[in-house]
Amino acid sequence: MKRTLFIILSVVVVFLILGTTFTWMTGPRTAQTFSTVGNRLPGGFGGGMPDMAEAPPMPAVDMDHYAAEESDRSFIGNDAVQQQTQERLVIENAELAIVVKDPAARKEEISILAKELGGYVVSSSLSQVSATSKKVLEAAIYIRVPSKKLDDALEKIKAGAVDVTYENRTGQDVTSEYVDLQAQLKAKQAAEEKLLEIMDEAVRAEDVLAIYLQVQNVQTEIEQLTARIKYLKESADLSAIQIRLIAEESTQPIQVGPWKPQGAAKQAIQDLVYFFQNFVDFLIRFVLYTLPALILIAIPIFLVYLGGRAVYRRFRKTKANVKDAGSEEIKG
Fold first, then answer.
1. Sheet of 120-131: strands edge to edge?
2. Beta partners for 68?
3. Greater pLDDT, 6 or 148
4. How far apart are the C-alpha atoms of 112 and 118, rounded to whole Å?
5. What is the pTM of this model?
6. Helix/strand/coil (H, E, C) string of the chain?
7. What pLDDT does residue 316 have?
């Protein structure tokens, strides 16, 4: 009886192991197969036969990105050819620091010069700076002129200068970036047209909404690319020139004249006045700040001193009493 029961239990355990293994091996594949077939069918599983009046779902939106990527690759493939035919796009800028007799008047002349050359003034400023024993004017102006007239502009600006203390001219070739941005722009525009065609064919509201959101993103990227292309083109067409106008007076060396007694006396009186002012300031600060602070610090120190002295005296008196009592006992 025991042997028969053991055989039955062993068979049950073997069948359980085999069934579990078979389910684990075939379960996910079967589920995946049915899921794939259900997705391919118009109505899927669980919904019965599809309604013939209902429009079929639109293609996955990722296909639009795939079309855009194909357009990107087609345009990028022609990037080398476009770059060869594209005229070099170079951004040229210059910085100057010149010494002039009248910075204010020279600033106005440079402003008129920029307009005559077909450019404009971006910003300008006029300020006073300390030089030797007085203050003089100093100006700064930032202009843009056509890049083809940059050399002419620099020559005319330096023509009326007493001295040129600093000059720096830079150039940046942005042809590759300009061509690449144009290719990206064409690809984005092609993707936009494809998305709009798909949106026109869409019937379900969720498909229209999904494609509309992608159209909005593509249009935002198109605007950003257009703005960058416009900036590079304008920067290459119009060169920037920053000019600092230094007054001639501020560059003159300090002249030491012959000794004059009245000058020494004046300087001595002025030094005495400064000493008196500093001394009065010291007294005011000492009376209003230093002395009260010392008093506030001294009060607790003095109280601690009185307390310590009282304790010391009491201790000394107690010690003397004990000593006297001991002397009396010895005498007794």
1. 120-131, 134-146, 238-247, 90-100, 163-173
2. none
3. 148
4. 10
5. 0.48
6. CHHHHHHHHHHHHHHHHHHHHHHHHHHHHHHHHHHHHHHHCCCCCCCCCCCCCCCCCCCCCHHHHHHHHHHHHHHHHCHHHHHHHCCCCEEEEEEEEEEECCHHHHHHHHHHHHHHCCCEEEEEEEEEEEECCEEEEEEEEEEEEEHHHHHHHHHHHHHCCCEEEEEEEEEEECHHHHHHHHHHHHHHHHHHHHHHHHHHHCCCHHHHHHHHHHHHHHHHHHHHHHHHHHHHHHHHHEEEEEEEEEEHHHHCCCCCCCCCHHHHHHHHHHHHHHHHHHHHHHHHHHHHHHHHHHHHHHHHHHHHHHHHHHHHHHHHHHHHHHHHHHHHHHHC
7. 80
Instruction: With beta carbons less than 8 A apart as the criterion, state whether 60 and 211 touch.
Output: no
Q: What is the pLDDT of residue 64?
A: 47
Look up residue 149 and give its two tokens: 């007239």
Helix axes 62-77, 175-201, angle to 10 degrees: 150
Strands 90-100 and 134-146: what pairing?
unpaired
Bridge partners, 243 (sequence order)? 96, 141
Mean pLDDT over 172-183 rounds to 91
Q: Identify the residue whose tokens are 């005229």.
A: 87
